[in-house]
């Protein structure tokens, strides 16, 4: 429809008026002014008397009835022609404005639908023909999935390190047991060294070898004790660090669980609010669309109301023609043409007033 309106508005005024057509079924012709003015028998008798009494020759005397009648006829004809042209131009101008309102309402519907699609995406009551991957609903859903994935990955990372810490602590416990055994062996070796030295002293020269063994055993015991003490201290430090690491991983996991719940709760609130906004915008779009459709309907009705120009233009054209013909009849006294003015196809459409709104066709 909008394309037809634009094509129609580019044509000439007369063509536009002839193209404004309604498909209604209430045609009605307006009675010609000239026929009303000169149809009675008394009027015709007065015209005949005037023709009989006219002068047989033409003058330029302004008081001459023939000259005055011609001047009046020309002025009335010119006035009727000017009135017809003025009304044609006015109707075309109003039609152009109404067509612009029609196009504007249609464009507003398209723009409002596109804007709503970009904001909230498509829905059951919204037909979106554009890509809505960047709508608020899609962005919120993508954000929720990203946060959920991040929390899952972080939780897996914390659980992995928590297991590593637990395994390390278990190994440290085994190392502590081994250190305790080594410490026990060192103590036994130290006791053995003392016993060897006692036995060496008791045997005298024969116990010299035993003395050497006892001395070496004492040295070995002392070295084992020193090394074992260093290992024990190192293990204690690492064990303490692993304990702290395990506690930190556990705390981080708990914080992530709390953070995840909080974020999901906030995202849920945002999604709820987004749906409320979407519903509100959808209702607003329906109201805008309904208003624009009413505007389009009333624009068509207004265009149909402009159809008065068709019979009006025809009557003005025929009246001017009949006045000229009447003037010729008065001047010559001859009636060589008995046909009255018919519909002029160059003016309007068919000379009928049709008002079936909603069925107007502009082409």
From TrEMBL:
Methyl-accepting transducer domain: residues covered: 173-324
Record has Transcription as a keyword: no
GO molecular function, one term: transmembrane signaling receptor activity
Cited InterPro entries: Chemotax_Me-accpt_rcpt, MCPsignal_dom
GO CC, any one term: membrane
Record's keyword annotation contains Transcription regulation: no
Keywords, ordered alphabetically: Transducer
Biological process annotations from GO: chemotaxis; signal transduction
Record-given protein name: Methyl-accepting chemotaxis protein 4
Gene: mcp4
């Amino acid at each position: 429809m909008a394309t037809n309106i634009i094509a129609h508005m580019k044509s000439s005024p007369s063509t536009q008026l002839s193209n404004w057509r309604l498909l209604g079924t209430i045609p009605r012709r307006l009675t010609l002014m000239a026929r009303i003015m000169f149809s009675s028998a008394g009027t015709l008798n007065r015209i005949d008397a005037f023709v009989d009494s006219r002068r047989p020759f033409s003058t330029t005397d302004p008081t001459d009835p023939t000259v005055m009648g011609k001047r009046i006829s020309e002025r009335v004809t010119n006035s009727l022609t000017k009135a017809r042209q003025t009304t044609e131009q006015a109707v075309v101008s109003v039609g152009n404005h109404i067509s612009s309102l029609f196009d504007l309402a249609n464009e507003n519907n398209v723009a409002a639908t596109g804007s709503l699609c970009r904001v909230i995406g498509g829905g059951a009551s919204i037909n979106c023909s554009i890509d809505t991957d960047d709508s608020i609903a899609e962005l919120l859903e993508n954000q929720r999935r990203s946060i959920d994935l991040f929390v899952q990955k972080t939780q897996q990372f914390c659980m992995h390190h928590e297991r590593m810490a637990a395994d390390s602590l278990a190994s440290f416990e085994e190392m502590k047991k081994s250190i305790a055994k080594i410490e026990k062996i060192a103590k036994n070796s130290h006791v053995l060294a003392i016993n060897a030295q006692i036995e060496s002293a008791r045997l005298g020269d024969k116990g010299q070898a035993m003395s050497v063994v006892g001395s070496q055993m004492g040295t070995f015991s002392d070295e084992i004790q020193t090394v074992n003490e260093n290992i024990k201290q190192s293990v204690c430090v690492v064990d303490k660090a692993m304990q702290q690491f395990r506690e930190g991983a556990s705390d981080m996991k708990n914080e992530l669980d709390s953070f995840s719940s909080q974020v999901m709760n906030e995202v849920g609130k945002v999604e709820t609010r987004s749906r409320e906004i979407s519903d509100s915008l959808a209702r607003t779009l329906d109201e805008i669309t309904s208003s624009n459709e009413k505007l389009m309907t009333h624009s068509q009705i207004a265009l149909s109301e402009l159809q008065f120009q068709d019979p009006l233009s025809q009557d003005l054209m025929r009246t001017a023609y009949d006045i000229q013909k009447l003037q010729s009849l008065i001047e010559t006294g001859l009636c060589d043409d008995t046909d009255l003015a018919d519909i002029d196809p160059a003016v309007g459409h068919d000379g009928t007033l049709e008002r079936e709104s909603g069925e107007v066709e502009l082409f």
